[in-house]
Amino acid sequence: MQLFSRSGGSNFDQKSMTCTLEEILEVKPVTGRQESQILTLKELHARYQFKPIRIVETGTIRNPLPRYRMGDGWATWTWLLWAKASQSHVWTCDLDPNAIATCRLVTDNSPYIEYVNSDSVAFLESFAETIHLLYLDSFDTGPPGDPRVKEACKHQLREIEAAYDRLDDDALVVLDDVPKDQKNGKAEFSIPFLIDRGWEILSHMETQVILSRKKCD
What structural domains does the chain harbor? Predict the structure, then answer.
């Protein structure tokens, strides 16, 4: 079973490997948001080791060209990597059926992935299982000042609200397209929502914010 037939880099056979975090990171394909994705995998490992988990993503791979792998980050690839190593499962949701078809192509229609063509809020409202990693990157926006920016912020808040009760106690939430000032992106409302409920920012790099619940002393 090969991890990435389209990576252009190293593959490995899961049946013959000794599964360690270091080996996973060694074969991770280079993508955009590389360091943020690596940190997310490290945080997942710290919380769950290689236990099977549920990874839920809104916004999926939308273009098969290699330059989009760097520009968009192709996060679904990284979640698939972890799913194969840990026998976990990924749900990737997108409103655009063409994007879902593209993701199926790039990820070789993986049995580790559930490909969902739906409005993301409706999907999260109907999702009945515990979520261990929630990655939100739906609703593309325009430049600062574009009215779609505020609409994207409101949409992401609705996603958080819809998924919140299913988040595991040790869950990670990763938000994409967040500039340094945390405005003019997608997370202006969702970050305060989480912080007000006892979450904290673990990292803010490469326009991504990683959050988790604060640990009690």
Answer: 33-213 (3.40.50.150)
